[in-house]
Amino acid sequence: MKWLKRSNTLWKTVRRYGLAELFVPLAKKGWQRRLLAALPQSRDSSAEPLPVRLRLALESLGPVFVKFGQVLSTRPDLIPHDYAVELAKLQDKVPPFDADLSRRQIEKAFGKPIAELYAEFETQPVASASVAQVHKARLHGGERVAVKVLRPDILPVIEQDLALLRFGAGWVERLFADGKRLRPREVVDEFDKYLHDELDLMREAANCSQLGRNFKDSEMLIVPKVFYDYCSRDVLTIEWMDGTPVSDIAALRAQGQDLHRLAEYGVETFFTQVFRDGFFHADMHPGNILVSADNRYIALDFGIVGSLTDYDKRYLAINFLAFFNRDYHRVATAHIESGWVPPETRAEELEAAVRAVCEPVFNKPISEISFGLVLMRLFEVSRRFNVEIQPQLVLLQKTLLNIEGLGRQLEPDLDLWATAKPFLVRWMNEQVGPKAFWRNLKNEALDWAEMLPTLPRKLNALVDEARQKEMRDAYVHLVKIRHRVRLGLGLGDDVGLRLGLGRPI
Fold first, then answer.
1. 61-70, 250-259, 321-330: which range is least confident on average?
2. Which of 187-201, 207-221, 383-397, 485-499 has the lowest mean pLDDT?
3. Its pTM surpasses 0.85
4. Does residue 283 carry a catalytic annotation?
5. Domain ranges across the chain
6. Pick the catalytic residue: 92, 234, 283, 415?
7. What beta strand segments (E) does 337-462 contain?
C-alpha cells in the first residue's frame, strides 16, 4: 500500500512546516478552528513566514506537489500576492541534485564519457525543476545546447503520490454528492498518463519537434531544435535559446519590448495550438517561457502536451464563440448536443444559469476579471445541471489558466475577448464553406483514387448480393406457404410429394 507510506510522509510534512495554519481560516465551525490551531508543529520552521513554509513543504514532497504549486503561482487572483511570489520560485528554482549524478546519468545513457559527447559541459545547472535539471553545454560541432537530465530515482516517489491521489479520489466519490459526476479517478488517470509521459525525454523530444513544425517561421513563437543523436529516455539535448524570462517585466520594459503585443501573442498562440493544430503545450507557466530580442516567445519544456479530436475542437469553438457573442442559448444547446449534460436538461434553464455567471465578465480588462470566481460559479452551475467533467479537457483548462496569468502579468488591461474572437471567427469560417470543402476533398484524394476504379465491381457485388438475398427470402416464403397448405389439407409427406408440395419443414 504505497499510499499509506506516502500519507505518513504527508502528515509529517504538515506537522514539520506548521501548515495547519493554512486551514484555520477555512474552518466553518469554532471547534474545527480550535482543533487545527492546537495541532502540534515543529519548531524548526516556525520562524519562517507561512508562504515560505508552504513552498518548502511542496519542494520536500516532490514533483506532483511542486507542479500543484506552479499552477497556484500563476493565479494571484486566487491566492494572496506574497504566496504567489513565493510559489513562483518552484517554476525553475527547485534545489538541484548533485552534478556528479547528472554526469553519471548522461554517461550511462550513451555509454560514453561525457568529454566524448560534449566539447564543453557546465557542471552547475542553469535551471532545476520538479523532475529534471538543465545544464549548458557545447557540442563538438560548435552548437550551443541545453542538456536536460532526469532526477535519479524519481519514479518511486511519483508512484506513491499517484497511489495517494487514487485513494483520495475513491473517497471523494464515496463521501461527496458530486463525487461520481466529477469522475475524480478518471482525472487522476489522465494526470498519471501525462506525468509518466514527462518522464520519457524521447517523448519530450518528439513533442518539441512537432510543435516546431507547427510554428515554423512563426512571428509569434520560437521552438528550439532537437539533437536526436544526444537524446535518450533520461537525457534531452536541444538548441540553447537566449532570451529574457517572461516574468521579468522590468527587464522587458528596459529592452523596449512591446508588452501589449506579447500579451496578444500569448492568447493567439494558445488558440492556434488548440484549434488549428489540436496539439498544445500544456505546461506554459512563466518558468517555461522566454522572450527573444525580436519580441517573440521562446517555448521550453515540452514534457506535457495535450491533444484534441476534431469533435472536441468543434464543440469548444462553438462554446467559445457563443460566449463571445453572448449567445447563452447556443452554449446550453452545445452542452446538450455534446452529451456533457443529460439529454433531458431544459436548454432554457441552463441558458439562464450561464447568463447569470458570464454576463458580468464582458467588456472588462483582465485586471477586473476573476476567472477563478467565474470558474467557481460555473462549477455551481455544473453541479445543479449534472454536467460531467471531461477528463480529456483537464489539461486544456489548466493551460487556459496559465495563459490568463501570463496575460495579467504582461498587460493587465488586455481584453481577452476582443483578442480571441477574431481568431475563432476566422477558424470557424475555415471549417465550413467552399474552402473547407475543397480542402477536405484534397485530403481524401488518395482514398478516392483507390476507390473509384473498383467502384463498378463493388456496386455489382452489392447488386448481386441484394438479388441473392431476395431469392433466399422468396424461397423461404414459398416453403412456408407449402407447409401451411399441406397442414391445411391434412396431407402426409407422401401425398404432399405426389402433389408437388415438397417435404415438411
1. 61-70
2. 485-499
3. no
4. yes
5. 2-90, 99-256, 307-443, 453-498
6. 283
7. none
